[in-house]
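Mods, move this if it's the wrong board.
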Amino acid sequence: MNGEILGNTQDLAQRLIAKTYQKVTIGLIITGLVMAFMATFMRNFIMSMGLGTSLIFLVIMLALMFMLSRSISNENSSPSTANAIYYTMTVLFGVSVSPLLVIYNINTIGLAMLATAVMFGGLTYYANHTKKDYIPMSIYLFWGLLAAIVLSVVAVFIRVPGFYLLIDVIMLVIFAFYIIVDTQSVKRFANQVSSEAQLEKFSTLGALNIYLDVLNLFEILVELIGMGQNNNN
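Not the wrong board. Structure tokens:
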């Protein structure tokens, strides 16, 4: 079956999209459950997480991303390996993002979840129905994101009113476009798929990209809504 041609590109695209979003949904559910568990039963650990812990998580995530990339490019690698790496990452992201449930109140979290769902749904619908190709924008989004990260580091040392707000708005726009780009990229993967194993692997790659877009979108919205509520109090 691994060498069998699966069908035309349009059919493959639909199967890839369905499987990709299935994995995105499962990944987000896992992350949410881990966040809830950590905030409920491991609150002291969350409060003790500092820069050192964040750096350790960053190194682990980068290593897992490298392993996932190698697993997908290696034809002899099993799709289950890529899936295992992806779901392991969703658990670890749940741990690293769990402080949000401690720092912000339930109203802020709820509003951020709703806003994320609405934005994600709207952007996904647009990406799947527009005739415009946004994939060439990916290089500009990458450099824009890199610049925003550098600015966020600078903001730690330079206390300028409204600077964090500006950075969050910029990053919100960047990840909104990333959702469009990564959604369209899943369709393009169909041109490279010729077996069930490849379909499974590319759906995992697409799921990770979109999962990270949604998670970052949620984090930014939590911060923006939290700022707004604090200003109103």
